[in-house]
């Protein structure tokens, strides 16, 4: 008999929720694209935060992007510019 997994609360949910709300009403700037990709990676496969996962997918649709196109575009952005200048640019914040 399979045991049902209970959804977990992500420890960064509160701050991430604010970012996602801003993305929902924002434009696909380089910074916003980088934030969207970062959060898609963070929540990929996470057992919970369904509202954030759903809204991240909604932002992709609003901006008429696929996940692959998003990652391709953000790779180019990170190669050519420092999106997170002055915001702890050296800090890894993926998970």
Care to describe what's here?
The chain is built from four helices and no strands. It is mostly helical. The chain has one domain. It is globular and about 40 Å long. It starts with 12 loop residues before the first helix and ends in a 15-residue tail after the last helix.
**Structural class, please?**
mainly alpha
- Distance between termini? 31 Å
Helix proportion: 55-70%
Number of structural domains: 1
Low-confidence stretches: none
| Beta strand % | under 5%
* Main sheet properties: none
Gyration radius over CA: 14 Å
Strand segment tally: 0
Shape: globular
Instruction: Output mean pLDDT.
Output: 88
Encode the helix/strand succession as letters: HHHH
Number of helices: 4
What are the main properties of this structure?
single chain, 4 helices, 0% strand, mainly alpha, 95 residues
